Amino acid sequence: MTAAAITPARKGSGFWGAFARNKGAVLGLVFLTLVVLMAVFADLLFPTSPWDMSTAPFQPPFSEDALLGSDTLGRDIAAGIAHGARVSLLIGLTSTAVAVLIGVFLGAVAGFYGGRVDDAVMRFTELFQTIPNFVLAVVLVAIFTPSLASIVLAIAIVSWPPLARLARGEFMSLRSREFVQAAVTTGQSNLTIIWRQILPNSLSPIIVSASLMVATAILLESSLSFLGLGDPNLMSWGYMVGAARTVIRQAWWMSFFPGIAILLTVLALNLVGEGLNDALNPKLARKGRA
Amino acid sequence: MTTDTKTDAPLLDVRSLTIDLPRGADRPHAVEDLTFTLDRGEILCVVGESGSGKSMTAHAVMGLLPKAVKVSSGGIRHQGTDVLSLPERDQRALRGGRIAMIFQEPMTALNPLMRVGDQIDEVLRYHTTLDRAARRARVVELLASVGLPEPDLLRRSYPFRLSGGQRQRVMIAMALAVEPDILIADEPTTALDVTTQKQILELIRDIQTKRHMGVMFITHDFGVVAEIAHRIAVMQKGKLVEIGPAEQVLNRPQHPYTRKLIAAVPHLIEHREDFGSDRKPVLVAEKVCKTFHLGGGFFTPGRKVVAGNDLSLTIHQGETVGLVGESGSGKSTLGRSIVGLIKPDSGRIMFEGVDLLSLSRPAFRPYRRHVQMVFQDPYASLNPRHTVGDIITQGPVAFGEDRNRALEKAKDLLKLVGLDASAADRFPHEFSGGQRQRISIARALALEPKLLIADEPVSALDVSVQAQVLDLLEDLRHRLNLSMLFITHDLRIAAQICDTIAVMQKGRIVEIGPAREVFGNPQHAYTRTLLDAIPGKGWTLPEDVVSATRRSAALRNSA
Q1: A31 near A264, Cβ under 8 Å?
Q2: Does B377 touch chain A (CB under 8 A)?
Q3: How far is B385 from chain A (nearest CA, A)?
Q4: Closest chain A C-alpha to B368 CA, distance in angstroms
Q5: What is the distance between the alpha carbons of residues B43 and B39, in angstroms, rounded to a whole number?
């Protein structure tokens, strides 16, 4: 039986190679790294609390004490943006993590077991999908009083349904694949099959949509803060925009810079998500890239 | 339609055609220096294994090459006109107009959202000047000419309403719509059942004779070739290795590759000795029934499909039972019921005296290791994210074996199935189809089963690889004294490997008995139909080729 000598097949270019081919994704990643660094070193860059009055109110950008100007109470906008990055990223990441846990768990159970379990879980999911996201989030935060935990939870609760649907679809199609059936016939337990056989194969689309969900979570948090439903102890970009809206005609910079921060961060996250999609789902990669 | 005056030129003349593959492919040329002609009124079979470039050739003629693939030299002439140098417009008129093509999978070749009549009508609208009523009459006439019943009604059906064979007939009708003089058929019967395959082959031959067309018929199956070919071209890795009249290539093959291919063709001539049924039964299935309920929701009842109706079957120690039948006959359902992937509605499946169906899930688990399965598709049956070593050891580890010991055993198993022990550290995508199927067999053997269920284990493989995997299974079952349930749609393969044959039709076992009797003296009408539909049954493999393989097989077995 010499004919079965092993011939290694050609190996595709690695994950990073595929990711780097998408220029926008690399740009997004670079910008995102800067935002993370800014959040991490906010205390060094701006040692004083962003809530402290540091200069005269209504200072325009590029004035002596405040690079990006100061707000109506004389607080440094640049300090606010650096410290606000912490809140935005923290809430974006943790709420997405919670949403992924809920969504993937429910989706996996529904997709793997099917039948009645699937029906029950999916009707439950639809219950959440029928209520407008933002309204539900506002209600939840209002009921539980605004705090970091309640905001994270509220955002997670309104964003898990699409992930559950995605995970369910992946699990359903992988469930009937022969390698999963082979795992059943070799006596592996359901938990092992879900965890070791199916989950690793369904991760790519979940990672991609989770990366996009971080962006939505940041937007949601900003909107909540804008309405005054942010954590009162934490400086956030949404709060800054909200607080400055009444003086937008006299002092554009107060809402402009935090707004730009939100815009660029969300854009960067979307670009990274798209790059991940290209790298993780090579078959779905859009045309025009050889 | 203009009649060509240059009648002395061959219908299709392919001269030193070379097609380049994009860089990074496994070889520089898809097709290299290929020269052949196709004359009016002949069927030229192009034979080769997957990756031999046979489809690329057809696609080059039809101008269907993917963008990255280019014809770098040589030419394709249609009745003396160089096709490749024609302007795009004229090329388009030529295809569809003079050269037509039918594909392997008629479901994907037809537009699922258009009535079949409209799809044929579309071809007529572009290529003829007929008015609406005339086109309609022509559509009906075409559908009737390919042997479809009630063409006037069928014209208004959507493709999903038709069976695979009917769809292929519609494709042929569409190809014939503008009276082409060349028909290119790319594996047109590979996706069909044997009995349907026979009808389609007859239809193609019939139409070819009536219309005096040239047919380029691409296939990997020498049985089909023997059935239909006037001339045969054999391709290997993009090169033409042998071309000649059918009789000559089939019976006196010259090139070693052709000889190898022909030797690998499963043949009916070898009948095994009858299996002595005095040994103790390993598995007895009694009156197993299974009905699937498809679709349906809260308010609508679904469709019922009977996949198992009163199935009874006994497998003795060391016996190989073949379960043959066409798609949808329920043969996989029985196999899957035995390994516990499907729960039958009623009946008993006794394994060494214990009714597996009466057991609860935990109580069934110990029996899993005694009954193992080899799956059909080697590309889908191995988890792409796990190493081969992992894949093989997962079973034993689940049954409490130490990981390192299981890995040592996995390496021995890999050697047993003809792979290198180092394969354990690699991932499935680094292996070819045949090698993957060996891995799949090693996984099944890792639990030291007493009964192996092989569900179409070779139907996704090339003929020569098919023969190797069959040899391996045959060798293993003697060495390990395995009992086996071998599920296949190919009677030739069943004849090669099985002691006992059970023929299934529409969820019933219609005939069961020793292989020699079922094939030699079939009792049931359906068995006779199946045997009659085997392509190439009138062709006996050349003696010198077969005896050479027998010798090498004997050598392998004694080694």
Answers
A1: yes
A2: yes
A3: 7
A4: 6
A5: 8
Dist CA B61 CA B158 (whole Å): 30
Across the interface, of B430, B438, B447, the residue whose CB is closest to A8 is B430
Q: Is A115 helix (H, G, I), strand (E, B) or coil?
A: helix
B371 touches chain A (CB under 8 A): yes
DSSP string, A133-149: HHHHHHHHHHHH-S-HH
Give yes or no for A181 touching B (CB within 8 A). Answer: yes
3-state helix, strand, coil in chain B (%, to 5): 40, 25, 35
Closest alpha carbon to A102 in A164, A152, A153? A164
Q: Do B341 and A200 touch (CB under 8 A)?
A: no
8 Å CB contact of B380 and A9: no
B372 has a chain A CB within 8 A of its CB: yes
Residues in chain A: 290
Inspect the interface and report whether the beta carbons of B447 and A186 lie closer than 8 Å. yes
Query: Do B431 and A177 count as a contact with CB atoms less than 8 A apart?
Result: no
> Would you say A6 and B431 are in contact if contact means Cβ atoms under 8 Å apart?
yes
Query: Do you know the residue count of chain B?
Result: 559
Provide the residue type at B545 as one letter: V
Given the structure tokens 């609406």, which residue do they identify?
A: B132
Q: Where are the alpha helices (DSSP H) in chain A?
A: 15-20, 23-40, 42-45, 77-113, 115-130, 133-144, 148-175, 178-185, 190-192, 199-226, 237-244, 252-280
Select from B358, B361, B311 the least CA-distant residue to B487: B311
Q: Mind spelling out the 3-state secondary structure of B469-490?
A: HHHHHHHHHHHCCCEEEEEECC
Alpha-carbon torsion, ordered B211, B212, B213, B219, to 10 deg:
100
Decide: A54 and A63 in contact? Cβ < 8 Å: no
d(CA A32, CA A258): 15
Which of A52-61, B165-174, B328-337 is predicted least confidently? Answer: A52-61
**What pLDDT, on a 0 to 100 scale, did the predictor assign at position A7?**
34
| Residue B185: DSSP 8-state | E
Minimal Cα distance from B24: which residue of A? A10
Question: Can you name the residues that pair with B371 across neighbouring β-strands?
Answer: B451
Radius of gyration, CA atoms only, chain A? 23
Q: Residue B235: beta bridge partners?
A: B240
Q: Is A7 on the interface with B (CB under 8 A)?
A: yes
* B395/A187 touch (CB, cutoff 8 Å), yes or no: yes
Chain B residues near residue A8 by CB distance under 8 angstroms? 426, 430
| A and B: number of Cβ contacts within 8 A | 89
Planar angle of CA B275, B280, B281, nearest 5 degrees? 85
- On chain B, the residues whose CB falls within 8 A of the CB of A1 are 418, 468, 472, 556
DSSP 8-state assignment for residue B542 = P
Q: Which of A144-153, B26-35, B273-282 has the lowest mean pLDDT?
A: B273-282
B438 close to A (CB below 8 A): yes
Q: What are the chain B neighbours of A201 within 8 Å (beta carbons)?
A: 383-385
The ipTM is 0.78
The answer to whether A186 contacts B419, with C-beta atoms less than 8 Å apart, is no
Q: Does A200 touch chain B (CB under 8 A)?
A: yes
CA distance B524 to B545: 34
Residues of chain A contacting residue B399, judged by C-beta atoms under 8 Å apart: 187
Query: pTM (2 decimals)?
Result: 0.81
Name the residue with tokens 């995102």. Answer: A32
Segment B352-379 shows an average pLDDT of: 89
Quick one: how far is CA B552 from the chain centroid? 26
CA–CA gap between residue B489 and residue B326 (Å, rounded): 6
User: Residue B2: left (phi > 0), alpha (psi -120 to 50), or beta?
Assistant: beta
Q: How far apart are CA B62 and CA B445, in angstroms?
A: 47
Average pLDDT, chain B: 86
Nearest 5°: the CA angle B277, B278, B279 is 90
Going by C-alpha positions, the residue among B248, B272, B255 that lies closest to residue B542 is: B248
